[in-house]
Amino acid sequence: MSQSQIFNVVDFDALQAALRAGSYEIFAKSSGDFHGVLTRIDLDRLWMQRTDTNLPWLMNSANDRERAPLFFPADMDQAPLTEGGVQLSPGEILVHRQGSTKRSWTSGPSRLATMSLTHEDLAEASEAIIGRELTAPSADYIVQPDPSAMEQLMALHKAAGELAKNSPSILATPGVAQALEQKLVHAMVTCLGTHVAAERRYCILQHSKVINRFESFLESKRYQPVYLTEICAAVGASERTLRTCCQEHYGLGPVRYLWLRRMHLTRRALKNASPATTSVTSIATEYGFWELGRFAVEYRALFGESPREALRRATGCDAALSQGVGGEA
Questions:
Q1: In 54-157, beta strands by DSSP E
Q2: CB contact set of 324 (below 8 Å; sequence gap of 6+)
Q3: 238 lies in the same domain as 257
Q4: Are residues 26 and 78 located together in one domain of the fold?
Q5: Which residue has the higher pLDDT, 201 or 226?
C-alpha cells in the first residue's frame, strides 16, 4: 500500500531521523535558523524522497544494501552538490554502489531528490524497458542523461511531491499509485540507460508478431490506462524494439500512441462523471496525468475545450436527457 508523509523540521537531527533507505549523520555548515521539508513517498516497490533545506550541510551516510538508490538535484537552478570530492550538477544523477558509504556537502540552500528500488526490481524493470538488466555498479558513478529524459524524471518526481503535499488521498488511491510508480520507474530506467548501445533490428515478421501481442494486450485492458513497463513485460520486447515496431505499423511511437489512448480514456471518464462527486484532478491523476497545468493545455489542444468545460458540459447534457425522456422529472 502506498503512503506519503511530509516532515517540517527545524533541526538536522530530526531530518536525519526521518530519512529512509540508509543511515545518516547531518551537520550544518553555517549558522542561522534552519528549516527543512522532507517529503517521503513509499509506493509499492519504489521509495522516493525530496528534501528542501535553507542552510548548507555536510552529511555522512551509509546506504541500505538491499536497495539500489540514485540521487539528483531536484531543481536546475541551484548550486552543485559535492560528493566524494566530485561535483554533482543539476541535470545529472549519482548512482550508488551497493551499500556505499559517502560524504556529501552543499554550499547553500538545496533541493534534492532520491529514488530507490530493490536490486531485483531494478533488474526486472530495466530488462523490460531497455532490454538489459541494470545492476549495482562496483563504484559510485555519475550519469548525464539526455536532457529531455532528465526533464521528464524531474517533472514526475516534483508532481509526486506536490500530490503528497496537496492531495495525499489521491496519491494513496491504488490505481493512481500504481500508474505513478510505472511512470517514475520508466523515467528512471530511461535516464540510467541513456547510453545503451543500439539494439539489433528484427525482421518484419518478428515485428508483426510484437504488434499483434501489443494489440492483444491493449484489448485486454480496453478501459484502463497502461504503461510501457508493463506492456514491454507482457509482449516480451524492450522499449526500443516496441518503438521501432509502432513506428513501422502506426507512424507513431508507443509513447505518443499510449498518450492519445489515455487522453481519450480521460475524456470518456469526464463525460460520464459528475462534478458533485468527482473532480478533474481525481480523473486526470487516475489516468496518469500528474502535471495538471500541462494536461489542461494538451487536452484543450486535442479536444477544443478544457477538461473542466468537458465535465460541466457532459453533466448538463445528462441532466437534460434525464428530464426529457420519460415525461416526469
A1: 57-63, 67-73, 81-83, 86-88, 93-95, 101-105, 110-118, 141-143
A2: none
A3: no
A4: yes
A5: 226
Q: What is the pLDDT of residues 35-48, one digit of tens each?
A: 999 999 999 999 99
Model pTM greater than 0.85? no
Q: In Å, how far are 58, 155, 171, 278, 291 from 180, measured between CA atoms?
A: 32, 12, 9, 20, 11
Instruction: Out of 75-89, 98-112, 149-163, 275-289, give the one with best mean pLDDT.
Output: 149-163
Coil, strand or helix at 212:
helix
DSSP secondary structure code for residue 196 in this structure? P
Give the containing element (helix H, strand E) for 269: helix 254-271
- Are the C-beta atoms of 43 and 74 separated by less than 8 Å? no
pLDDT of 315 reads 54
Given strand 110-118, what is the order of strands in its sheet? 3-9, 36-42, 47-53, 110-118, 67-73, 93-95, 141-143
What is the number of other CB atoms lying within 10 angstroms of the CB of residue 223? 7
The residue segments making up the domain with residue 186 are 3-192
Q: CA 54 to CA 32: how far, in whole Å?
A: 9
Same domain, 206 and 293: no
Position 228 in a domain: no
- Please, are residues 186 and 227 in contact by the beta-carbon 8 Å criterion? yes
Shared-domain flag, residues 12 and 158: yes
Give how many domains the chain has, as a whole number: 3
Whether residue 319 sits in one domain with residue 257:
yes
Same domain for 37 and 151, yes or no, is yes
